[in-house]
Amino acid sequence: MGSLMFSLSLSRLVLWASGFILVLVFLKLAHLLLRRQKLARAMDSFPGPPTHWLFGHALEIQQTGSLDKVVSWAHQFPYAHPLWFGQFIGFLNIYEPDYAKAVYSRGDPKASDVYDFFLQWIGRGLLVLEGPKWFQHRKLLTPGFHYDVLKPYVAVFAESTCAMLDKWEKKACEDKSFDIFCDVGHMALDTLMKCTFGKGNSGLGHRDNTYYRAVSDLTLLMQQRLESFQYHNDFIYWLTPHGRRFLRACQVAHDHTDQVIRERKAALQNEKEREKIQKKRHLDFLDILLGALDENGSKLSDADLRAEVDTFMFEGHDTTTSGISWFLYCMALYPEHQNRCREEICEILGDRDTIQWDDLGKMTYLTMCIKESFRLYPPVPQVYRQLSKPVTFVDGRSLPEGSLISLHIYALHRNGTVWPDPEVFDPLRFSPENVAGRHPFAFMPFSAGPR
Ligand code: HEM
């Protein structure tokens, strides 16, 4: 009798729980559908490529490569078009300077639909933070990027670069082509570890290499997640093989940053080391973070500290690695520009064999080539915002508060109305006279506005 009562109440409990879950699923679905309707209605006046009923534009983007696909759509739909990753995340994708100015000069918040995918990995650091806390962290860290802090780093850059060139000298003897991307990545991470995180001169260790590989994995998985609507929900994603791979790579990245923080904290326990830091005229990034107090006079929490270290560790080497690699690719494709850069550097160096801070301002042709390579291959090709108030664009079309915006930097930089023959590598686009007549929001490799 007792066991019958027990199984009856258990089955009733299961029934209740299933009903409850069903209601939750229904409410979530209704919320998503209403949101979709709102986003879609807001973009009514913007024609765009046809959407798949389930995948939106994700399938086409995955099949053909998102960057060039969007450039071809930009030819068909001037200024902007709707871009759907699945059925529930829909952006107005913009690639025209006046459109970019209308949004990026105002400081709207980042679109959490995209940036929240970063949370598990880099936490709430500068890239993801919003509001007063973003402002507090930003103010706190600005002195770490003062010119006087940066100047001595030039010697570190030169040293790490020489190590990379020595490696290439040996590889070149084999008379076989080789992929430079990974070596550039190690060089960028090595300089970052030495400058920003105060690592000694020992070069990258095994742990740094593992971190480097984990970050490569994480960036690819992030892009894949954004483009696959079935991965947008955290709970579902963590259950998939890709989600689990993401979590494993996060663990590797966190172990690395924890170790960096632990080592510096341990060094600070040492009296002599503390005195050395107190005597420094300018503190480095990690000194600032560890010494920082919030508005209540308490230290940054461990989570805040790790988020900033993770953010800078990622942002500081991933962008520079692709920027430098694409620049070298352009130099290889266009030897005439490479020779002009070489001549310029040789003239600046004279009989010295290494670059100094004051030389940087004299490298005018090289700077134009770097900018032209950033135009064609921006290291961050797309950034996202959510409107905090309505916006009206130059052609009179508008979007309401809450709409999602994707600024497609790659397509903006290939917009034929601003850049004649956009596919041609022409550094003279960045000569002072050519820059003077150009829209200030036509070239945005570093985004624009307060972020
Ligand atoms: C070629 C080099 C670089 C490029 C092209 C680049 C590009 C960008 C872009 C486009 C953003 C805006 C992201 C967004 O709105 O979602 C950004 C933000 C950021 N970058 Fe970089 N970056 C570069 C180098 C670096 C380096 C070396 C560091 C650190 C040492 C860094 C740290 C950051 C941080 C912390 C943010 C977030 C800023 C905020 O939202 O307040 N970046 N970067």
UniProtKB/TrEMBL annotation:
Top-level taxonomic group: Eukaryota
GO molecular function: heme binding; iron ion binding; monooxygenase activity; oxidoreductase activity, acting on paired donors, with incorporation or reduction of molecular oxygen
Subcellular location: Endoplasmic reticulum membrane
Keywords carried by this UniProt record: Endoplasmic reticulum, Heme, Iron, Membrane, Metal-binding, Monooxygenase, Oxidoreductase, Transmembrane, Transmembrane helix
Record-level GO cellular component terms: endoplasmic reticulum membrane
Cited InterPro entries: Cyt_P450, Cyt_P450_E_grp-I, Cyt_P450_sf, Cytochrome_P450_Monoox
SUPFAM superfamilies noted in UniProt: Cytochrome P450
Residues annotated as transmembrane: 13-34
Similarity section: Belongs to the cytochrome P450 family.
PANTHER family, sorted: CYTOCHROME P450 4B1 (PTHR24291:SF149), CYTOCHROME P450 FAMILY 4 (PTHR24291)
Protein name: Cytochrome P450 4B1
Originating organism: Orycteropus afer afer
